[in-house]
């Protein structure tokens, strides 16, 4: 395969960007060299607080004396994604097993970089769609073949200050659905007390969840983007209107610190933020991300997933592949430690754990309806959309750039990048 073809993968940003706690921060805790014959080299991007949870799981698994022990290699997210095409292209030091973000899988597959799990799955009957959250399981199957298996499904929601909720919106969460209208009403009441109603946080999940609620999608055919649309305008406009009406945090303010200081009512963020706010000196809760409608069948919560993949590697033996599957199968019923990191394991076995049921993020797996609300935007060129929204989204919400200029600019930039990517193949 041509180096420039593989290098094109690097353009695709992950679902979990540097803003996420535990992804792409810190430094590697292990050498990234090859493994010995009885060892599985496992690359992953967990270098933040969740790294200690990962190491505990691996240590526990290794203590069961498997035929192949796991060698943990946690790399900075950017470094890991830069190394992957280099080692796959060279054929040397390819990891035996890798965690990647869900949104990268289609491009890895299209660049012929992945092994499939189809043959080996026949020997591991418990690793099947009935035992995993549907949204996390289904994206691993492309063109009738399985290219990945899920570790978790992490999603967007809304943290809230229970004391402020009781004061400004006592009935808003009786149905566990927080609507834009309820946010506006509560925010107006809170203004006089210098309390912010809702935080402007990571634009991508805030906007994409609303875009889907408005009937929009990133693409209709899997390739060409559909971004300059009424649905995207409405999603961005909703947040811009909240800002104009003075119910959001302001440009330059730190939403996390405002929330911890008791000066913010609603804090849209990822479930992984639990460890950042768990020691707040007030009672807080977690519910769905902001919704347009209070219809429980129309809830949309942006989500992503960390997935196990095997990059093509002529040196990976059938015995080692079996060892990889034994590790993944063990995790299916031993994922509580990962939930302690603030994640939602994708295995449904976790929902039977008493300790897990007490965790705030378990709310999203409690019922089939909540599981169905989780939406992974697995568009092949999702990364290009992310790059644009990360660069321009805040300016749009804060009124520095028009909404129409943003949607048309995003459409043009993503189309141009796709053309450039195609010309490099």
Automatic annotation (TrEMBL):
The keyword Cell membrane applies. InterPro entries: Bact_solute-bd_prot1, SBP. Keywords: Cell membrane, Lipoprotein, Membrane, Palmitate, Signal. Pfam families: SBP_bac_8. SUPFAM superfamilies: Periplasmic binding protein-like II. The keyword Membrane applies. Residues 1-21 form the signal peptide. PANTHER family: ARABINOSE-BINDING PROTEIN-RELATED, POLYGALACTURONAN_RHAMNOGALACTURONAN-BINDING PROTEIN YTCQ. This is Sugar ABC transporter substrate-binding protein. It comes from Enterococcus saigonensis.
